[in-house]
Amino acid sequence: MRAPSMQRRGRALADTLRASIETGRWKSGDIRTYADLIRHHGAQQHIVAMAIRILQDEGLVETRQRIGTRPKVDGESWTTPDGVPQAVHIARTVRARIATGTYPAGEQLPALAGLAAEFNVSISVASEALQPLKSDGVLTYIPFRGLVVPACQPHSPVASQPIA
């Protein structure tokens, strides 16, 4: 008995949110958290989650963990400050931190969960971002310690070319 009532409330909230998107009251750049939606609509978290899932299935909204939900815009995705994919942005940032000494030789990198939280991505995206750095020898995995900046950094092909 209770499940149909919850489904009905989830669909009703989805209808309300859909109408907000269609009328422009919920604009494409407007990111709303679950807490915002709960507070504004007086709904319980599981009802909000159900409504968001319905709208995601319809392709009307997109959600980013730890950030929120926004109306989906065709051809526009969540972007990084420099406009590249998240994994590329993370790899560039970590590489720059190593080059500037923020992560000095011999130092252990923050855990994947910490990097994922810092960049607001999943752990799998953070792990994917670090793969090229491991392949290039910029990072080394040490059992029971994690990812470490090796004492001797490999030279990049660009840096080792003579200056004309």
In short:
The protein is mostly helical. The chain is built from seven helices and four strands, in the order αααββαααββα.
Please name the defining characteristics of this protein:
two-stranded antiparallel sheet, 4 strands, mainly alpha, Arc Repressor Mutant, subunit A, 164 residues, 7 helices
Distance between the termini: 78 Å
Q: Number of DSSP helices?
A: 7
Strand order of the largest sheet: 1-2
Any idea how many domains?
A: 2
Major β-sheet profile: 2 strands, antiparallel
| Residues in helix, % | 40-55%
Describe the structure in your own words.
This protein has 164 residues and is mainly alpha-helical. The protein has 2 domains: 2-71, Orthogonal Bundle (Arc Repressor Mutant, subunit A); 86-152, Arc Repressor Mutant, subunit A (Orthogonal Bundle). The protein is 51% helix and 9% strand. The protein has helices at residues 2-23, 34-41, 45-57, 86-100, 112-119, 123-135, 157-160; strands at 61-64, 68-71, 140-142, 146-148. A two-stranded antiparallel ribbon has the order 1-2. A two-stranded antiparallel sheet has the order 3-4. The longest helix has 22 residues, at 2-23. It is elongated.
Topology:
Elements: H1 2-23, H2 34-41, H3 45-57, E1 61-64, E2 68-71, H4 86-100, H5 112-119, H6 123-135, E3 140-142, E4 146-148, H7 157-160
Antiparallel strand pairs: 1-2, 3-4
Helix pairs in contact: 1-3, 4-6, 5-6
